[in-house]
Amino acid sequence: MTTTSNTARRSRIDSEADPNYRVAVQNLDARVLLRITKMAFRYRGRMALAIVATIGAAIFQLFVPQFLGRAVDQAHGLLSTATDAAGRAGAEQALFVTAMLLIGASVMRGLCTMMQNYQGEAVGQTIGYDLRMAYYRKLQTLSFAWHDRVHTGDLMTRGILDIEGVRLWTDTGILRMVLLTILIGGGAVILLQIDWLLGLLALSFVPVVGVSASIARLKLRDSWLALQDELSTLTKVMEENLNGIRVVRAFAAHAFEMKRYDRISDKALAISHHRISLFVRNTTRMTYVYFMAMGLVLWIGGEKTLDGEITIGQLTECLAFMTILQMPVRQIGWMINSIARASTCGGRLFNVLDLVPSIADKPGAKDLALTDGVMRFENVTFSYPAWTQDERTLSGISFEARPGKTVGIVGPPGSGKTTIAQLMGRYYDVTEGAITIDGQDIRDITLSSLRQAVGIVQQELHLFTASVDHNVAYGDPWAGRSSIERSAAAAQLHNYIRSLPTGYGTMVGERGVSLSGGQRQRLSIARALLLESAFLVFDDSTAAVDAATEQRIRMALKEMVATRAVVIIAHRLSSLMHADEILFLEAGRIVERGSHEALMAQGGRYRKLFDLQSQPADVSPLRAARQAED
Q: How many CA atoms within 13 Å lie on the side-chain side of 59?
């Protein structure tokens, strides 16, 4: 039993990197609908009120045609007793009572419908809230390996359109099913009791309209899914365009981007036109069948009325029932569409919600207990999931980082430098070997305590649309102003911030576009320094900073890093040549290691890279590259 459950759990974890994860649950329509229904019935009070109100609205709706028929017969009787004063008074009294009952039934139906709509919408909105929070929470916990394979635009579409499709199930599915069952079932019984032939004629439009509406709704559902895919693509294109708007402008690619967006918009417009055509044809067909049935009822019913088989009031009752049933019967198609939409949207959502993060706390994981503050890579091997075809990214990596010491990592692009930084924060798990902190395997400690201890200045910077102080204090929102200013000063950004119009309260544009590249990097450094982590990792974090400013940052950090372990990843040797130990990576392996002086004395790859970067400005790049190869 345990083996089976572990296998199932592992398959869900592995599915994070599966590019076909989107269709994994679409065959479980019944289970998905049952799951959404259970979510609705978690709010028992509201659902009970909604169902009682729906039943009440249906029953009172069924009373209305009967009261109308009775009123017509009473009015007809009133005409026949025009010369009899006593009979006229009695008929008027009966007609008044029926009118009051009709008004009362209509008022009660309206009140019940109001309660049904309110409670149904309230439950739907609450489900939407729960799903939005659960979905967003899940996205925060899923591993980098999963996010690497999924486009942000697709995730945003799921979080908006799919949640909306699920939310509507309570009102358009559950409550509508109760309403239609009572109205159509109760109406059929009443009509057949009046006259079986007239009842069959009055109900003849029901199966035709119901089937037609269902088929049309299913077609509309398919076209809606196609439209949703196109809208998702539009979202992706717009998001990429806006994120890269400066690149678009720099390369004068406005016309190309407009054509691309217009091409996808045309597809979405064509699908929308197809949906409109389906809807109009279906509505026309249903209306024709309905009025055809009503004409037959009026013709046959009129003959029966003349023959005395039924009263005028009963004929009126049949026609009134047909009028009342017209919209509910059409809603059969809406209900089927709701079933299809909720099951599809729910399947897409639950497929994400049910994923088990591959990077998560183990059962019983404990917080990191820091003693000596030493991190060790012990013969670490790592390869990225799925799409690398098991090609090893890192092989046999061993080194240690301890307080007061600096480790530098350098190497050509793709050699695995940034991967080491990601492994230190356990954004991925090692394939072989282990990473330990004071003898504790980082896979056995809680992620929150690990990431508080390991501060990484990412290679890819991201600043939020907020004030400067909020961006600096993102990791510790309750940090005091003095701590924020001290971190900014160490990152050589304090004087610049003070020169801004509102200082630390100045708003940073979206993704930090109002700052230069170097200023964004320094703000990111200040953000990491504020946390006072035991391990500081700078992943090419000064590439956009000039050499003089970088030197000042290094001097300012000297006191702050005296009790911390520092790892510097860089392409520019001047950024790490002061390190106590430098690792030269190539193809995922450490090919050289030692201090700057020792590596220079070896005359290997490090020396060649140093000579290449130290070439005078008048040496051609081609000549320098040939010298490096030699």
A: 10
The pLDDT tens digits for 506-556 are 887 655 556 777 777 788 888 887 877 889 888 877 766 667 777 777 777
What is the rounded CA–CA span in Å between residue 508 and residue 500? 11
Rounded alpha-carbon distances, angstroms, from residue 43 to 61, 170, 265, 497, 570: 27, 11, 41, 51, 55
Beta bridge partners of 539: 569
Joined tokens for residue 340: 């299809």
Let me know the angle formed at the C-alpha of 391 by 386 and 395, rounded to the nearest 5 degrees.
125
Sign of the torsion angle spanned by Cα atoms 153, 155, 161, 164:
negative
In single-letter form, the type of residue at position 34 comes to L
Cα separation, 537 vs 523, in Å, equals 15
Point out the least confidently predicted range of 211-215, 288-292, 350-354, 616-620: 616-620
Q: Is residue 228 pLDDT above 60, yes or no?
A: yes
Helical axes 85-141 vs 29-40, angle rounded to 10°: 110
Using pLDDT thresholds of 50, 70 and 90, give the confidence band for residue 574.
confident
Which tokens is 569 given?
A: 């990843």
Cβ-contact 470, 441 below 8 angstroms: no
Strands 375-382 and 432-437 come out as antiparallel
Closest among 322, 298, 299, 305 to 73, alpha carbons compared = 305
DSSP 22: G
Contact 393, 421 (CB under 8 A): no
C-alpha 362: how far from chain center: 26
List the structure tokens of 283.
């509505």
377 forms beta bridges with 399, 435
When computed from its CA atoms, the radius of gyration of the chain, rounded to whole angstroms, is 36
* Average pLDDT over all residues of the chain: 80
Report the alpha-carbon distance of residue 155 to residue 533 in Å, rounded.
32
Is the separation of the CB atoms in 161 and 345 below 8 Å?
yes
Q: Can you read off the two tokens belonging to residue 598?
A: 């020792």
| Residues facing 441 on adjacent strands | 436
Closest CA to 313 of 93, 63, 77: 77
Q: Using CA atoms in the order 184, 186, 188, 190, what is the torsion angle rounded to 10 degrees?
A: -150
Q: Which residues contact 16 (CB under 8 A, 6 or more apart)?
A: 142, 143, 145, 146, 355, 356, 357, 358
And the tokens for 379?
């013969």
What is the spatial distance between Cα 504 and Cα 293, in angstroms, rounded to a whole number? 74
Judge contact between 491 and 527, C-beta under 8 A: no
H-type alpha helices, 176-243: 176-194, 196-203, 205-243
| d(C-alpha 575, C-alpha 541), whole Å | 10
